[in-house]
Amino acid sequence: MRQAFAGIALRKVFSAKSAIAAFLAITMCVAAVGSASANAKYAAIVVDANTGKTLFSANSESRRFPASLTKMMTLYLTFEALSRGKINKDTRVPFSAQASAQPPTKIGVKAGGSVTVETAIYALVTKSANDAATALAELLGGSQDNFARIMTAKARSLGMNSTVFRNANGLPNSAQFTTARDMAMLGIALKEHYPQYYGYFSTRSFTYGRQRMPNHNRLLGRIKGVDGIKTGYTNASGFNLVSSVSDGNRRIVAVVMGGASGAARDNHMADLIKKYLPQASNGGKGGPLIASATTSPIGAIAKVLLPKHDAPTPDTRPGADIVVAADEAPAVVKRKVARTPETVAAPVMQAYADPAPRPQAEVEEVAEQRTAAVDQAVAIQQEVDPAHTASIGPSGWAIQVASSPSREEAQAFLSKASQQAPKLLSDAAAFTVQFEKGGVTYHRARFGGFGTKTAAWDACAALKKKKIACYAIQNN
Length: 476
Description:
Keywords: Carboxypeptidase, Cell shape, Cell wall biogenesis/degradation, Hydrolase, Peptidoglycan synthesis, Protease, Signal. Residues 1-21 form the signal peptide. The structure is a single chain. This protein is α+β, with helices and mostly antiparallel strands. The two termini are 40 Å apart. The longest helix has 23 residues, at 16-38. Helix content is 36%, strand content 20%. A hairpin with a 5-residue loop joins strand 1 and strand 2. It contains 15 helices and 15 strands. The chain has 3 domains: 2-38; 43-350, 3-Layer(aba) Sandwich (Beta-lactamase); 397-474, Sporulation related repeat (Alpha-Beta Plaits), CATH 3.30.70. The protein has helices at 2-10, 16-38, 70-83, 97-100, 117-125, 130-141, 144-157, 180-193, 195-198, 262-276, 297-305, 358-370, 372-377, 407-420, 453-465; strands spanning 43-48, 54-58, 92-94, 114-116, 205-208, 211-214, 226-234, 238-247, 250-259, 320-323, 334-337, 397-404, 429-437, 440-450, 471-474.
């Protein structure tokens, strides 16, 4: 700023109008930075993907909710299974009742139906489909809970020591958290470890049946060099985005979390790319690894407890491969360590089992204990990745269609209402809100995104004509 004003002072040829314009531009820039720093959800990082050097960082090691960025790990494990021959692109992904009942956004496969693995991948990278993510989790892990344990264990092996996953799609869960730095590591790992599948992230749109699914990442095609990766949103997380950008030999991965709106998040990301991509190295890789299969329990604990600095980059592919033999129970596993992925013959439904050995579980427990109190104090609400979310927030209106002590049942109500009134609720975002009464935890099933009280009332009146009970409520 001093140099800018010095330049103005030295250039006598500057007109008063030019000087005022320059001052206003600087003032607006300072205001924008101040606004971001005042946002308690905000975090960001820019990493040179060749060297691992941190080019920019703001709250990058502070705990945040990943929202649909969670699906990056779901896809990472899907790519891993593909590369090792455990599944192929045409393998059918069955949809259980639980998968089908996931709230929107979704592709709407009914229980008992199925899609191919490739269709599920497209559904995740474009529409951020929650039902497809759950179906993939059940295919690869046997259950979503078990798959979440696999996700967390894989995160540790990649050096993501401040991340815990509880589901495969990023739907609200107060025990699921990450950091901007960890998401940058995962973004780098996806491209470095599985370049043969990374092109899925640049898909601009995908058609399933009669549905055309545009990619939620609006920087694709807008910013030169952007080739992915993933957006995310819940009310608790704010608007999240991980971007991979290339310019010749230069490559960065940037993360913005907690944006106040999709547009604000995208504009901030665009500014970070414009400023820091030219500062990235113009040579080959030279950074340390993020994917190490030989980290000792003591070393892993140290990584969790000690502060991290530059985000390391992957030099080799992930090394830990957990395989369940065909005739073994899920609890019995064989560990195979390799420096590069290998094709392993194993039944698709038993491709994975709970991978966490006891020392690793102890590491995770140490990490969770550090901020368990914070987790318990956080109330998460709002569905993930709504297609239109400008009016969703504390000042918006929602309609409630059910309340149940079962979160799955509340989600089922949302799914049923979406199917009964698809046009009416096409722009609404489904979510659940947890509350307690008489010592019992209940889950309110709501649709948000109504900008006015009248809009919510009118929607409710239309739903009642379809025999769907509801009432309008301000979404505070």
